[in-house]
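In response to a reviewer's request, we include the raw inputs and outputs for one of the modeled complexes. The two entities were modeled together in a single run.
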Amino acid sequence: MTSSPVTIGLLGCGSVGGALVELIAERADAIADTTGLRLGIGSVAVRSAAKSRSGLSDDLLTTDARAVVNDPTIDVIVEVIGGIEPARELILEAMKNGKPVITANKELLANCGAELYGAAAAAGVDLLFEAAAAGAIPIVRPLRESLLGEDVRRIMGIVNGTTNYILTKMAEEGADYGEALGEAQRLGYAERDPTADVEGFDAGAKAAIMASLAFGARVVAGDVYHEGISEVSQADIAFAHRLGYEIKLLAIAEVFGTGTDREIGVRVHPSMVPADHPLAAVRDSYNAVFVEGAAAGQLMFYGRGAGGRPTASAVLGDLIDAALNLGQRSHRRVPGGGQPAKIRPIDELESAYYLNLEVDDSPGVLAEVAGVFGRHGVSIRSMEQEGLGREARLVFITHLARERDLQATVSELRSLGVVTGVRSLMRVIGE
Amino acid sequence: MTSSPVTIGLLGCGSVGGALVELIAERADAIADTTGLRLGIGSVAVRSAAKSRSGLSDDLLTTDARAVVNDPTIDVIVEVIGGIEPARELILEAMKNGKPVITANKELLANCGAELYGAAAAAGVDLLFEAAAAGAIPIVRPLRESLLGEDVRRIMGIVNGTTNYILTKMAEEGADYGEALGEAQRLGYAERDPTADVEGFDAGAKAAIMASLAFGARVVAGDVYHEGISEVSQADIAFAHRLGYEIKLLAIAEVFGTGTDREIGVRVHPSMVPADHPLAAVRDSYNAVFVEGAAAGQLMFYGRGAGGRPTASAVLGDLIDAALNLGQRSHRRVPGGGQPAKIRPIDELESAYYLNLEVDDSPGVLAEVAGVFGRHGVSIRSMEQEGLGREARLVFITHLARERDLQATVSELRSLGVVTGVRSLMRVIGE
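The model returned the following C-alpha cells for the whole complex.
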C-alpha cells in the first residue's frame, strides 16, 4: 500500500501528549501497513521548550501554539492542553483553517461543546473527541453513530477512576475514606488537590458530553447536579453489602417525555448499585458506561477511563479516522449542538433511597417515623431495625420517590424528638 | 431539517426483519429530526407472500429477491435471510449495482467475508454488519475504527446467548445440562436442534469475523477450533466455584509474533474464568466481548447478542450510517480482506488447565501422577485431594502449558493403573 504522509500538530505534551508521541513511533509501520497512512509529528507546542522530551527532536518544539494551528504544512491538530483557554481559541482557529481537530479536553467540550460542534460543521472538518468522555473506552463513536437510531432512555456511568479506586479500597479492604484517598494520591491516581475528582466535577463534565451525544440536545457542565464521595463511610458500605449493594459514584443522564415536553436530568452522586448489576463488578480505577435503549436493551462499555497510554490510544484511533477522512475529502457528521436541553432539576427527579436513622429505642417510634414518610408520599420498600443500647438504628429503602418529597421527609425526621440523627442518605439504583 | 427520502429493500422478514420494520415505523420521525433522513421500506423479499405481515402493505411484498437488488428505486439493501446462498449472490449483485448493503449474516461473513469485503471496496459502497458479530453490542465499529491504531493482542467473548443462559441456570439454580437446555428451548432461547449453539458453531463464526477485523487478516469459520458445553457437569461447576471460577463458553482469538511470523489462534470452548474477571459477571443470555490492547488495556463491550429487536437496533444504526454516507457520496473504509491468516493450531496453543482425576487412594499415587505431569513439562499450580471411600479425587490447576503436552499428559494418565478416570479437563483463563 502506498503511504500518504499526514503531519500532526500537537498542542500540549503532558502525560497524554507524551504517550501519543511514543505510541505513534511504535505503531507507525503497522498503521502504514493497515491503512496506507504515514503519521508523523510536525510540530509540538509546549509551555517550555527548555525541557527535553524523549522521542522528540528539539526542532519540533515551539512555544507558539498559534503558529502551529496556522502552519500550512500541518494537516491535523491534536489538542491535549486541557482547560478552556487558550484551547478553545486554538481549536476554533485550526478548524477555520480547514484542519481537523482531535481533542481529549472534557472541560472544554462540557462548557463550549455546541460552539465547537457548530464551528466544525461550518468548516466541514472533523472534530473528534473519543478520549474526552471515558478515556480509552470507545463510547463516543457508538453514541454518535451506532445508536443514532436508538431511543436511548438512560446512561449510567462510572466515569471517574480516582473515585472508583477509592470506593473499591473502602469496600474490599475496609479502608476509610481518608486512607483510601491517601493511597490513591501515593499511586498517582488522585491529584494533590483531589476536588475535581472526589466532588464529582470531572464525572459531571463527562456526563454533560455523553448526554449531549445520546439525547441530541445541548447539555453543559453547569446543568449537572453533583455530590461527591467524601461523606461515604465504612458504615454505609457495610449496610450496602448487607442489603446486597455496592456503592459507586454514578453519573446518570436520563430523558423524560418526548417532543417539546422532553426534559433531561443529569446528576452525579454516590449510588447503591445491586450486587448483580454489571456496574457493581467494575472495580479499581476501571470505568464503565451503561446505556439503556428502548430496542437495543442494556449495553455496557468497560475499560480504562484515564492514564497516558489508554487515553493516547483513543486519540490515536481518532487521528487515523480524521487522516483517512482527509484523504477521502470527507468528514464525520458532527453532532448537532442542538437546542439547549430543558433540564429537569434534581428536586423533580425520582429515585429509590437508602436512609439510615438513629432513634430512641422506645415503643411507637417506628410508627411515628413511618408516619412522616407517609405524609410526604414516600413509600417504604424495606426496613431493618437494630438495637444500639438505649437507641436503635432504622435502615430504610424506599420505593421510587421524588427528591423534593424525600428531602422534605428528611427535614421533618430531623425535627422529631425521637430521631437522634439522620446518619446517611443515599440514592439506590433499581433493576 | 429537510428530509431526504431513503428507500430500503429488505431481503427476509423473519424475527429480525419484522422487528426492523416495526422499529423504522416507531423511529422514523425521530430519525428525520436528528439526521434529516426519511427512511422508508420500498420492497420486502419474502419466501411466501401469502403470509400477512403486520405493518407492511401487501404490495411491498415480493418473492423475487433478485428484482429487489436490481430495482433502481431501492437505495439501500438490508439482508436478513441468513445462510450462504442466495444471500451471497444477492449481496454481490446489490453492491455491483452501487447499493450499500447491511447484513446480519454471520455465517456468510465467516465463510465468504473476504470476497464480500473485496466486492464492496471495488464497488465503492458500504458493507456494514454490526449485527453479525454480537447482536446489539457495538463491537464491529470500535474494532474497525476506534481501535485501528491499537495493537490488539487478544479478544475473549461470550458471544452465544443460548449457552450463556444454560450455564447461568446450571451455576445459579443447580440445573443439570439437559434441564437447562430444555428450559432454554421452552423460552425460545434455544432451537429445537440446538447443535449450532451448544457445540460452538455460532460462537465460532462470530470469532472468525471479530478476529478478521481485529487482526486485519482473513480468518474463516473453518479456522476455528471448537468444543461445546454438552459435557459440562454440575460437578465441574461446583469445583469451579470452590476454586473461585465461573464456567463460560468463550470464543478466544489471539495473535502471536509479528510480521511474517505472525500467527493467529482462534478457538471456542468452555473455560474457567476467575470470579472477579468482568466476563464472569455476564449472566443469562447476555453477551460480552473482552478486548486486550497493548495501549488501551482491557476493554469490554456488553449487551444483548441476539433477539429480534436488539439485532434490528444494530441493523438500524448501520442503515442510518449507510444512508448518511450515500448523501455525502462517501462510504466506510471496508476492512481489507487481508491475506489468509497463518493459523496456529490448537495443539500449539497455550492455556492453564483444570483436571479432575479419580485415583486409587493408596500411598505413592500422587507422586506417580505428578511424575506424569513432569515428564510432559506440564507444571502444576495447585492441587486439592479429597477422599471418596477407597478412591480419591485429585483436582489440579496447571500453569500455562501447550495443548499437545497437556493431551499427552492426559493420555498417559489414562493408561496408569492407579487412575480410575479423568473426569474432566477444562481450560482456565488467567488474569
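As requested, we also summarize the result in words. The two ends of chain A are 51 Å apart (CA to CA). Chain A touches chain B through 57 residues (CB under 8 Å).
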